[in-house]
Amino acid sequence: MISKLPRWVWTGAWALAFVAGIVNVVGLLGFEHQAVTHLTGTTSMLGAALASLDGAAALHFALIIGSFLAGTVLSGFLIQDSVLQLGRRYGLALLLESLLLCLAVLLLQRTSILGIYAASCACGLQNAMVSTYSGAVVRTTHLSGMFTDLGIFLGHTLRRLPVDMRRLRLCFLIISGFLCGGIAGAVAFHHFSYAALFIPAALTAITSLAYGIYHVRHRRSE
């Protein structure tokens, strides 16, 4: 069970889920109609492409998966741990995510498929950066695990078994953040097209700065 979650974890989890919600809806509404924050559907499409011997499509889906994986590798190289802990290089990882999203905008505005790969890499970086806290898995770019945990908790409640209320709150937090991001992203895409990705790019840059300030203040108060 999660014993305690600092305020920066709650705030950061919602903000990053919001960011992922925007990025994914822009990918779905864009010219490729491609989900980029998770790989389940992409892997299925890769399988279908391989089965139909469509080499171009198979390469495309493989590159999306490879880009996401490259982002996770970059996160592992920078942060060097899977446990969420104040003091690690989250600020740098968030700044790199912001730059990747800005690059994605520039490429997608030119109808370049490379923009999808840049956005996928940014999502892989984010998803690996926020990995675990107090033994609980924390994922901010997809919701399958959150809805699974939510269903388990509801089942436990029906059986009158103990429920980890902090974990339950975390599930609702990430789900609501991703949903709100999807709404905001759809509205922004309607008005600004791919420039809507500048919103999550700005948010990750601001979060990077806020994390750095919080970390400095926390060290001074010790």
From TrEMBL:
Alphabetical keyword list: Membrane, Transmembrane, Transmembrane helix
Coiled coil start-end: none
Sequence intervals crossing the membrane: 12-31, 57-78, 90-108, 168-189, 195-214
Alphabetized InterPro entries for the sequence: DUF1275 (IPR010699)
Record Pfam families: DUF1275
Protein name per UniProt: Membrane protein
Record lineage: Bacteria, Pseudomonadati, Verrucomicrobiota, Verrucomicrobiia, Verrucomicrobiales
